[in-house]
Design a protein that fits this description.
The chain is an all-alpha fold and 202 residues long. It contains nine helices and no strands. Helix 4 packs across helix 6.
């Protein structure tokens, strides 16, 4: 028998709601995301959404965690590939940076960061877990590159912190559409930094 049509009193799968949030951010930006509009999209009332997610801040954070889990799967696949350490580092950077102006994942990240000023300890721990996953993978890549002789040996922990700060800064420029900053330019500038810092003789 075909499934019964969803009614407003039937909660859709959580992933359907989170995917709808990302789709709305991609199409209309954060200004276009309202609990009432999202409810209409997934067949729930805004009251039901608040029952399941409690606040809009929690909804945004859960959506970010869901999106990061998907990115994490892609990152692990890239980093376990057969290429050189530098090739895998380039792939990591390509995945880290926004696709361009108004990238929905980065748009969501910026909003969660902005709201984190008033966030509770639990939310801060969850945000730190997202950051930590990216950081650990980068530290492992840098250490592997040094051990294999592909990179100059550096303090991987310290260098990863610096590199991620650089990537975050460029990412903000990209996602807000700062004039004169395109993804290709950013990739070139990051490549120059890596060449000077990791592979140049010294």
């Amino acid at each position: 028998m075909p499934p019964a049509p969803r009614t407003r009193n039937t909660a859709p799968p959580r992933e359907d709601v989170l995917a709808a949030v990302m789709a709305t951010v991609a199409e209309r930006g954060l200004d276009g995301l309202t609990m009432a509009g999202l409810g209409r999209e997934v067949g729930m009332s805004s009251g039901h959404l608040l029952y399941y997610f409690r606040t809009k801040d929690e909804l945004l954070l859960q959506t970010l965690e869901w999106s990061e889990n998907r990115l994490g799967d892609r990152r692990r696949l890239l980093l376990s590939g057969p290429g050189s350490v530098r090739e895998r580092l380039d792939a990591y950077i390509g995945l880290y940076l926004p696709a361009g102006h108004r990238d929905p994942h980065w748009t969501l990240w910026l909003e969660v960061w902005n709201r984190s000023r008033d966030a509770g300890d639990d939310a801060r721990v969850r945000q730190a877990a997202i950051e930590g996953a990216w950081h650990r993978d980068l530290v492992a890549l840098l250490a592997e590159g040094g051990a294999r002789g592909e990179f100059r040996r550096v303090d991987a922990e310290h260098f990863a912190t610096r590199l991620r700060a650089l990537l975050d800064g460029f990412s903000v420029h990209l996602v807000v559409g700062l004039p004169g900053t395109g993804r290709a330019q950013v990739l070139d500038r990051v490549a120059e930094f890596l060449e000077e810092s990791l592979t140049a003789a010294g």
